[in-house]
Design goal:
Blueprint (H helix, E strand, L loop, with lengths): L3 E7 L4 E7 L4 E8 L12 H14 L7 E8 L10 E2 L2 H9 L8 H14 L5 E5 L9 H4 L5 H7 L8 H15 L7 E7 L3 E7 L2 E5 L21 H10 L3 H10 L2 H6 L4 H10 L1 H29 L4 E5 H6 L1 H7 L12 H4 L6 E2 L8 E4 L4 H10 L3
Parallel strand pairs: 1-4, 4-6, 7-10, 10-12
Antiparallel strand pairs: 1-2, 2-3, 5-6, 7-8, 8-9, 11-12
Helix pairs in contact: 1-3, 10-11
This protein binds adenosine-5'-diphosphate (ADP).
Length: 380
């Protein structure tokens, strides 16, 4: 049986789409509608955005009768959803109820689902949850050390995000090494605009850096990652900042952007190379980014005990050799030796560690759309 899966990723102000052949593992078409709902944008809302995408699909000349399923990336599955789920009215209502946990993302996901179900009424729609892979976190990793009753009442725990990518990359890592995922311990470093780390033992996630929300953990484009929660109380008391301002500060004006003024990693590297005061700020941002990454690598080596592989993925992880080299520099004593030649060249999934490195270091391109398409295809 052949056919295509339309993969939709509705963000707060953008919708990414891809038309995927899940059996061949190829993308036939992909695109992006941006600036949804922003002033002066021709795309007033998500409904208009999806209409535009439908138009682009028709204009592409691809026979839309070949679309046999639609896969939806949904950011938060809460404690309700972990496996890919066939979407029904009840599922939509339950995802809507999770809006509180992901106020920026889940509402956009729900609108995407509702419009797409009208556009493609005769095929299964499948929700794939960004939190799903981390459902298996052991209690010691999932719990925050706060009042148990408060945590239970409000659903406060480590959920983790980018799960589709961490799962896909950990499995691809095993495939590259010709090993069974069940016997492999892997650290996955997903370094994109958002960034997260995971420790995967025998195919199951045992730790990850993002928490209740995608704000915790590594330094990101505009997000702070880890910070003393006391900073929030302090800024509330001394600067009078309220919840909305603090949310904006940590989610939009922090990370690389907060430290250097730019959130895009390419711009950060250019700015650092240009020197001057701005170059110094970019250099500091780079150093903070690397330092945090090294702390997580060290922590996850201890969580796993035996680490067979470390895989770098996403925009920065796949493309910036210096980040990979600096993140793992000087760890020969821990059995990790990156080979500069291998690290600096090559394309696609590949090994970049030296032959005598006890832990194999790899670059493994992520492909969340393909993973979502394959998950949706199972319902056809
Ligand atoms: P998203 O989280 O939006 O999916 P990506 O995984 O595409 O993000 O990663 C985006 C980040 O990767 C940006 O900071 C971008 O600058 C960086 N990036 C992508 N390609 C390169 C490159 N060739 N060199 C340096 N940085 C890159």
């Amino acid at each position: 049986m052949t056919g295509l899966v339309l993969v939709l990723n509705s963000g707060s102000s953008s919708i990414k789409y891809q038309l995927v052949d899940p059996v061949a593992g190829t993308a036939l078409l992909s695109g992006l509608v941006e600036q949804i709902g922003e002033a002066d944008s021709p795309v007033a809302d998500h409904t208009a955005g999806l209409r535009l995408i439908h138009r682009q699909l028709i204009d592409s000349g691809i026979d839309l009768a070949a679309v046999r399923a639609v896969g939806h990336r949904v950011v938060h599955g809460g404690n309700l959803f972990h496996a890919p789920t066939l979407i029904t009215d009840e599922v939509v209502a339950e995802v809507e109820r999770l809006d509180e946990l992901a106020p920026l993302h889940n509402p956009a996901n729900v609108i995407g689902i509702e419009v797409a179900r009208k556009d493609f009424p005769d095929v299964p729609h499948v929700a794939v949850f960004d939190t799903g892979f981390f459902h298996s976190l052991p209690p010691a990793a999932a719990h925050y050390a706060i009042d148990h009753d408060v945590a239970t009442e409000y659903g406060i725990r480590r959920y983790g995000f980018h799960g589709t990518s961490h799962e896909y990359v950990s499995r691809e890592t095993a495939a590259v090494l010709g090993r069974d995922p069940a016997e492999l311990n892997t650290i996955v470093l997903h370094l994109g605009n958002g960034a997260s780390a995971s420790a995967v033992r025998g195919g199951m996630a045992v730790e990850t850096s993002m928490g209740l929300t995608p704000l915790e953990g590594l330094v990101m484009g505009t997000r702070s990652g880890d910070i003393d929660p006391g900073v929030l109380f302090h800024l509330n008391r001394t600067a009078g900042m309220g919840v909305a301002q603090l949310d904006e500060l940590l989610n939009r004006r922090s990370g690389l952007k907060g430290l250097s003024g730019v959130n895009d990693f390419r711009e950060l590297l250019d700015q650092r190379a240009a020197g001057g005061a701005a170059g110094e700020a970019a250099g500091l941002a780079y150093d903070v980014y690397i330092h945090r990454l090294r702390k997580y690598v060290g922590a996850y080596l201890a969580v796993l005990g035996r680490t067979d592989a470390i895989a770098f993925t996403a925009g920065v992880g796949e493309n910036v050799a210096d980040v990979r080299a600096d993140a793992l520099a000087g760890l020969e004593g821990l059995g990790i030796t990156v080979d500069p030649q291998r690290n600096g060249s090559g394309k696609g999934a590949r090994i970049i560690s030296a032959d005598d490195s006890r832990t194999t270091v790899l670059v493994v391109p992520t492909n969340e759309e393909l993973a979502i398409a394959r998950a949706a295809w199972k319902f056809v």
